[in-house]
Amino acid sequence: MDATAPQSADVCLRCIGCGGVATGVQGDCRCPSCHDLLEVELDAQALAGRSPAEWKALWRQRRASEQPCDRSGVWRFRELLPILRVPTAAVTLREGNTPIYELPTCARDAGLQHLWAKHQGLNPTGSFKDTGMTAAVSRAREEGFEWLACASTGNTSASMAAYAARAGMKCLVLVPEGKIAWGKLAQALDFGALTCQLRTDFDGCVRVLSEVIRRKPVYLVNSVNPYRLEGQKTVAVELLEAMEWRVPDHVVVPGGNLANASALGKGLMELLALGLIPRLPKLSIVQAEGANPLVRSVRDFQGRALVPVIAETLASAIRIGNPASWKKAVRVLEQTDGACLDVSESEIAMAKDAIGAEGVGCEPASAAALAGARKLAQQGFIAPHEMVVLVLTGHGLKDTDYTLALHRGSLLPGTSPTPPPRPPAVLEPNAAEVLRTMERE
Ligand code: F0G
After folding, report:
1. Whether the model pTM is above 0.70
2. Of 182, 203, 227, 359, whose CB has the highest number of CB atoms within 10 Å?
3. Which residues, given as ranges, of the chain have pLDDT below 50?
């Protein structure tokens, strides 16, 4: 299938459509025969040399090392992603190793006993994208590319820009004008990306980028790039490690372009295949009502077809109408018996407020995971005693416009329920006024 041998590590890429095999990606990262997505096939034989206990010990031990690739929560697991000739030369910002928090109040409100949040927003650029970007950018540098490029709702571009800067590479960002959070745009500028705001939506940016890629040899780091998913799948290992290898009953993630769910599912399947876990959690995907093509696909076509939608949601990170990885996501839902559901803007806002009240900041898109878990508990899909882990995908400071509007009461005018407004008090500068305000609490 692939005529030119890559200059980087040989790893088998299999097409999820026709099953064909490639040894490297070209251009749009898709299968040259049928145009479907590729994925790295892990060679389980090559990993048979160690027992599950030995793998767990090795990966834990590396946390005590001072080597950059051991400190990385991605490259610490490098045997699971043999995509580089020289893994110790990876472009890393010490991504991963993110904390997992208990959310007792959110749990109680949802009628659950055990609820945790794995906070991927506490990565170097403030989103889960870093775990994938370290993999894709390292691979691109090894292959000798000069330019990286992505279309993005903001986080992918922030992450690409940072890793490109670290790698000494140029990068092109295409984002929908006025439709991404300012924090994310600021990051792309800060890290020196050539940043283009296009007068379209995310799906329009993807279309333009496909054309650019046909005309110039730039390396695509959107999540159609299978190496990115290899980095992102390590969240599964970290999550299990943090739970001391007790398998949660449910993992709930927000879904946009659907790579995160696909990668996490791939990671879980590989851990099962290697005997590191005895069973799978149910992996459920939550979309915003106004950007719910996967929900419609599952509901109307049993996941066999996807009709793109014009996406609208205030959770701008997941404002995506034509998700690239939908087939991979459907497969994960089937493999893990997970659910796919959508939540309203009001439910996302309530969830964001509830997570904030536990001292944890996250993006609106991340809060969709809690909104979804609440709904799944109400519907009985999640039982009260079951262990549930949410994946929080982005940092609370990414989209402060949303958070300020939420607390000023201007986010969703005329919609209910929304969290009671809690705007900052503006007072004369004297203690008596401050004390009076405190008494009203
Ligand atoms: N949460 C956040 C904060 C995101 O930035 C994204 C995606 C998602 C969830 C959804 O993940 O696409 O893998 O299903 N953001 C992309 C971007 C699309 O361009 O930054 P997904």
Report:
1. yes
2. 227
3. 1-6
